[in-house]
Amino acid sequence: MIETWLTRTLGIDLPILGAPMGGRAGGELAGAVSRAGGLGMLGAARYTTPEWIAAESAVVRDTGLPFGVGLMTWSLGESAQHAALLDAAIEAKPALISLSFGDPAPYVEKIHAAGVPVLSQINTIEDLRIVEAAGVDAVAAQGTEAGGHTGRIGTLPLLQEVLEATNLPVLAAGGIGTGRGLAAVIAAGAEGAIVGTALLASPETTGPDYARDRLIAAGSADTVYTSVFDQARNQPWPTRWGGRALTNAFTRKYHNSDAGHAMLSGAYDPADPDLGVVYAGEAAGLVTESLPAAQVVERMAAQAEVLLRRFR
Ligand SMILES: Cc1cc2nc3c(=O)[nH]c(=O)nc-3n(C[C@H](O)[C@H](O)[C@H](O)COP(=O)(O)O)c2cc1C
Question: Within this chain, do residues 229 and 165 fall inside the same structural domain, yes or no?
Answer without folding.
Answer: no
